[in-house]
Design brief:
The protein is α+β, with helices and mostly antiparallel strands and 93 residues long. Helix content is 26%, strand content 30%. The chain has one domain: 3-Layer(aba) Sandwich (Aminopeptidase), CATH 3.40.630.
Length: 93
């Protein structure tokens, strides 16, 4: 799902393709910093969630502990924090 303003995609929300049983992960992007905090991400996420619920899929919202804007959108949409878990990465120098 994408939200356009003056022909340009402002915000996009997608089922990221990782589906386990009937649950899927949401990816949300608001591309231009000056378009953030206007409710676009919340709006487009809502429409994706409704669309996927109609298809029998339950959303999972995953974000980092320091991504407060993402956490705020998740809260507005009714998600509840259920766990924190470690994420591992490799730094290549």
């Amino acid at each position: 799902m994408a939200l356009r303003k003056n022909g340009e995609i402002v915000s996009q929300c997608v089922n990221n393709g990782f589906i386990h049983e009937n649950q899927y992960f949401i990816d949300l992007y608001t591309f231009n910093n000056c378009e953030r905090n206007k409710g676009y991400g919340t709006l487009i996420s809502y429409y994706l969630i409704i669309d996927q619920l109609k298809k029998g899929y339950l959303p999972i919202w995953e974000t980092t502990v320091d991504n407060m804007p993402s956490q705020k959108v998740a809260d507005k949409l009714g998600f509840e924090k259920v766990e924190e878990y470690p994420v591992y990465s490799i730094n290549i120098v």
